[in-house]
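Per your request, structure below.
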């Protein structure tokens, strides 16, 4: 009874990188054409779970919107908006917080990782943000959630909360399913055993969508590899070179066998130069579009304002029904 609805989000914690693009945004651009109701959200409330500089956050919200538009998100096909413009995200989050047990939230892999990393300095938001993510999706009765595979446990929490709510208050929320891209998860260029992320301090660990050809070339040249000069795919024993091959494969559609075959006469230095060419060629039109959008900030703001209105209409209607079911 709930129509197919696509929902996904990205944190405005900097400029989106090729991991975000290949793991999420590329799929978003595809799904805006295959689905009627599609929402993409710049999740600023999530980005304040770590200390933020207000001016940097403002800039990141703009840059994230500009990058999404430059990658091909079409505001006539998808509702593109800023999370904090729609207050019902926080309201539904509170209702869900009261339906979530402490052990359930403590069992999430990201909590285990973060609570070890930040120890006693950790804030409560870093524990409960997956509940906000569930609210983000279910506020729009989202059924399809195109995300990287690191997000699967969080989509499962949204499924649990929908089930718990429906059992206690009556059938309302649909089942949200993660839609995971076939391409491999992109790893950090500096520590190729962990994922490429905006939150890694070393900027040489990631390729931003706005990096110039020279910067891209420099970062790939410095990418951590090993002392074996040959090019072959072995993610367990050769994570660095295999990550470059994953990036190559994702941007070209070639398989790792085809890439190995094509590059068997090259050494690591020559192969890195080849990957830099491919990435540069793909990103150049995206980068140019972002630079143009930076010249027209009012245009980008208009798109976000219209997105907030359209998202807000759906959110308000659903939230009124949720309140009625819960008795307030
Ligand atoms: P980040 O971890 O860089 O801050 P976000 O949390 O904003 O990224 O995630 C936005 C989307 O990008 C999510 O769907 C996430 O799964 C995806 N994503 C993030 N990093 C990667 C990566 N290295 N490889 C593939 N997908 C990724
Ligand atoms: Na993140």
């Amino acid at each position: 009874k709930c129509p197919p609805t696509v929902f996904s989000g990205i944190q405005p914690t900097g400029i989106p990188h090729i991991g975000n693009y290949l793991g999420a945004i590329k799929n978003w651009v595809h799904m805006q054409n295959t689905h009627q109701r599609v929402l993409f959200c710049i999740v600023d409330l999530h980005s304040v779970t770590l200390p933020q500089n207000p001016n940097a956050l403002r800039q990141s919200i703009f840059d994230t919107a500009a990058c999404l538009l430059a990658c091909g998100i079409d505001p006539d096909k998808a509702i593109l908006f800023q999370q904090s413009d729609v207050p019902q995200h926080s309201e539904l989050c509170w209702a869900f917080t009261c339906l979530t047990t402490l052990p359930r939230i403590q069992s999430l892999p990201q909590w285990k990782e973060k609570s070890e990393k930040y120890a006693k300095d950790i804030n409560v938001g870093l524990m409960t943000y997956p509940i906000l993510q569930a609210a983000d999706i279910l506020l729009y009765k989202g059924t399809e959630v195109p995300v990287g595979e690191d997000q699967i446990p969080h989509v499962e929490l949204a499924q649990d909360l929908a089930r718990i709510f429906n059992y206690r208050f009556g059938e309302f929320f649909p089942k949200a399913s993660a839609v995971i891209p076939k391409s491999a998860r992109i790893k950090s260029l500096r520590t190729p055993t962990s994922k490429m992320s905006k939150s890694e301090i070393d900027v040489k660990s990631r390729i931003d969508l706005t990096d110039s050809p020279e910067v891209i070339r420099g970062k790939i040249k410095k990418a951590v590899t090993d002392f074996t000069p040959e090019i072959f795919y072995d993610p367990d024993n050769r994570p660095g070179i295999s990550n470059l091959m994953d990036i190559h494969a994702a941007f070209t559609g070639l398989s790792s066998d085809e890439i190995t075959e094509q590059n068997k006469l090259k050494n690591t230095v020559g192969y890195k130069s080849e990957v830099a060419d491919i990435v540069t060629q793909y990103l150049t039109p995206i980068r140019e579009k972002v630079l143009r959008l930076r010249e027209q900030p009012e245009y980008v703001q208009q798109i976000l304002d219209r997105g907030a209105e359209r998202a807000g209409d759906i959110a308000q209607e659903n939230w009124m029904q949720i309140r009625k079911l819960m008795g307030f």
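The chain has two domains: 5-184+297-326, 210-292.

Regards,
D.
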